[in-house]
């Protein structure tokens, strides 16, 4: 039997989501040693329950969701950015307004190439952490789910530059 390379196998044999493998197919995958690669390729694509956990591995952000580069900003996302020079000049916005009583998403666009930043929200300056993105060098796009928060004034900063990159988060 002629063996196929893993790449050819994943490309050719990727089944439709939801279709279970026959015993014969399983044996074939096992025989070419491509089961692991096949699982890695198919599970995330299927997006079924549990797939995310199984796909998570080394390199996955420990800070939570929202750091995947291919993730996009939802329509009601709140945008904020860090441009080149942000370490000295701050975020491109020093005030954000968010809705009270329901979760919302911060969309943080770090376009500061080679410079690490993050977005972190606190109850107040030096207060309790509400949520933060991973510290990563730009260019990187991150999202952060926050809330629900009670109406009031909160604090956000970049944890790398907490004296220059700061702002007020107004929840109303
Ligand atoms: Cu920073």
Task: Summarize the structure in short.
The chain is α+β, with helices and mostly antiparallel strands and 172 residues long. The chain has five helices and ten strands.
Could you list some keywords that capture this structure?
alpha+beta, Immunoglobulin-like, 3-stranded mixed β-sheet, 5 helices, 27% strand, globular, binds copper (II) ion
Question: Would you kindly provide a written description of the structure presented here, covering whatever features stand out?
Answer:
- This protein has about 170 residues and is an alpha+beta fold.
- It folds into two domains: about 5-55, no CATH class; about 80-170, Immunoglobulin-like (Sandwich), CATH 2.60.40.
- It has five helices and ten strands, in the order ααααβαβββββββββ.
- It has helices spanning about 5-15, 25-30, 35-45, 50-55, 85-90, and strands spanning about 80, 95-100, 105-110, 115, 120, 130, 135, 140-145, 150-155, 165-170.
- The strands form three sheets. It has a five-stranded mixed beta sheet with strand order 2-10-9-5-6, with no helix packed on it. Strands 1-3-8 form a three-stranded mixed beta sheet, with no helix packed on it.
- A hairpin with a 6-residue loop joins strand 5 (about 120) and strand 6 (about 130).
- The longest helix is centred in the first third of the chain and has 12 residues, at about 35-45.
- About 20% of the residues are buried.
- Bound molecules: copper (II) ion (CU).
- Copper (II) ion binds near residues 87 and 161.
- Copper (II) ion binds next to helix 5.
């Amino acid at each position: 039997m002629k063996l196929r390379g893993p790449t050819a196998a994943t490309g050719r044999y990727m089944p439709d989501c939801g279709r279970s493998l026959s015993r014969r197919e399983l044996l074939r995958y096992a025989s070419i040693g491509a089961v692991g690669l096949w699982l890695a390729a198919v599970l995330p694509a299927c997006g079924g329950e549990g797939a995310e956990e199984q796909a998570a591995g080394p390199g996955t952000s420990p800070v939570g969701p929202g750091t995947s580069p291919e993730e996009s900003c939802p329509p009601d996302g709140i945008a904020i950015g860090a441009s080149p020079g942000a370490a000295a000049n701050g975020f491109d916005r020093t005030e954000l307004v968010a809705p009270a009583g329901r979760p919302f998403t911060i969309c943080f666009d770090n376009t500061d190439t080679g410079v690490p930043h993050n977005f972190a929200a606190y109850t107040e300056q030096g207060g309790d952490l509400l949520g933060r993105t991973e510290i990563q060098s730009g260019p990187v796009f991150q999202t952060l789910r926050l809330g629900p928060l009670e109406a009031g004034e909160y604090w956000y900063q970049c944890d790398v530059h907490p004296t220059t990159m700061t702002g007020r988060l107004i929840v109303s």
